[in-house]
Specification:
By secondary structure, the chain is an alpha/beta fold. The protein is built from 17 helices and 17 strands. The chain is 39% helix and 23% strand.
């Protein structure tokens, strides 16, 4: 496959910043509390070397988005973020793409919002989680409700028009009204995007070892449905399991994941996905390769500075390709058009038909143009995925 043909598959960049001021008790992400080993200068140096190496595998392809995730990327200086953006621009020659940075509402970070905007970031994702002081303390957050409110205003004053707020529900001892009040407060700011997701207990977290009492299933259902109704009434359309957006304000970076686009992952523990034409195939079947980096920050820095950022890689089997596509695409309420499936996998619609042939048609629909869950099926997505062939 020529580079020109690969340009039909969107390519995004994810940069992982693995440090936080404090590890939250529910977090299972690759994040580490900031300590004496924190070295921003050396880590950025490693990120740039990592990006140079990734570029070798996708030359002449344009970037469609950049996302700085963590951890807490806003712990880094604006200059550090600018270096990564500027280096990516030199390699990929992009303009006017979505560039997101995750940030927390702490006062120290708010003071840097303007500098991040000047560095090239044009979308801010603020990890508020709740506006309730007691729940924030339970979640181990280092900000309070007032700082959460202030962060949104500060982002606006810094010039950010595209802002996401992260909110959680199903918190320990949370009432239905408290969950609704969090969404009501968020809606008052009329931000462009809201991520609203249920607290789940993950392995290798403090909450897994010391599990708090969470709301029961009936209460969780009420929280979810009533908050969804409130979001809809405020012109937030659900387009993914936990993502709600104003018109034309979906997160393009995440949509690229869910539609099986390609992405580069740089930083400690970052994952990537790159597509190549299979040189031995007699048809349009593609080699889709997963790539991942060393997980521990110090090991990542050490190995990357020696030219060994890559920790491992794997070419997906045909079966894995179909399953991973469906695992992502069915998260979208609109599902995926078949053209995207064929373009991004090289596989025909017959492979989809075979994968879903045991799924009840009242849960999932597939025709020559689109595959998606039904309204009922969207409520039982996990069950659908468990029954894929």
């Amino acid at each position: 496959m020529t580079n020109r043909a690969l340009n039909n598959i969107p390519l995004s960049l994810y940069a992982h910043i693995p440090w936080c001021v404090k590890k939250c008790p529910y977090c299972d992400f690759n994040s580490h509390e900031k300590n004496a080993t924190f070295d921003e200068k050396k880590y950025v140096q490693a990120l740039l070397i990592d990006l140079d190496d990734e570029y070798k595998y996708c030359q002449n392809r344009a970037l469609s988005s950049i996302f700085f995730g963590g951890g807490t990327p806003s712990l880094f200086s604006a200059n550090a973020i600018h270096q990564v953006i500027d280096h990516a621009r030199k390699l990929f020659k992009f303009d006017n793409i979505e560039i997101t940075l995750e940030a927390n509402p702490g006062t120290f970070e708010q003071e840097k919002f303007t500098a991040f905007k000047n560095a090239g970031v044009n979308r801010l994702s603020i990890g508020i989680q709740s506006f309730d002081k007691t729940h924030l303390q339970t979640l181990g957050r280092i900000h309070d409700g007032k700082q959460a409110l202030s962060a949104i205003e500060t982002a606006r004053h810094a010039g950010f028009e595209n802002i996401n707020i992260d909110l959680m529900f199903g918190l320990p001892e949370q009432t239905l009204q408290q969950a609704i009040d969090d969404v009501k407060t968020a809606c008052q700011f009329d931000v462009t995007h809201l991520s609203h997701y249920q607290l789940t207990i993950e392995e290798n977290t403090y909450f897994h070892k010391h599990t708090p009492v969470l709301p029961g299933s009936d209460l969780l259902w009420e929280m979810q449905t009533q908050c969804q109704e409130l979001l809809n009434a405020n012109d937030y359309s659900q387009y993914e399991i936990s993502a709600y957006a104003k018109a034309d304000k979906q997160c393009s970076h995440n949509v690229n994941y869910w539609t099986f686009g390609d992405y580069i992952g740089i930083g400690a523990g970052a994952h990537g996905k790159l597509t190549k034409q299979n040189p031995f195939a007699t048809d349009n079947i593609k080699n889709i390769t997963r790539r991942w980096k060393h997980r521990q920050p110090q090991q990542y820095i050490k190995q990357t500075l020696k030219g060994n950022a890559l920790s491992g890689s794997q070419i997906l089997t045909r079966q894995d390709t179909v399953f991973e596509f469906l695992l992502n695409a069915l998260r979208l309420k609109a599902g995926s058009d078949i053209t995207t499936y064929i373009n991004n996998t090289g596989l025909g619609i017959d492979t989809l038909k075979n994968a879903v042939k045991n799924i009840d048609p009242c849960l999932l629909t597939l025709d020559e143009n689109n595959i998606r869950t039904t309204e009922k099926g969207y409520l039982f997505l996990n069950e659908i995925l468990e029954n894929l062939l």
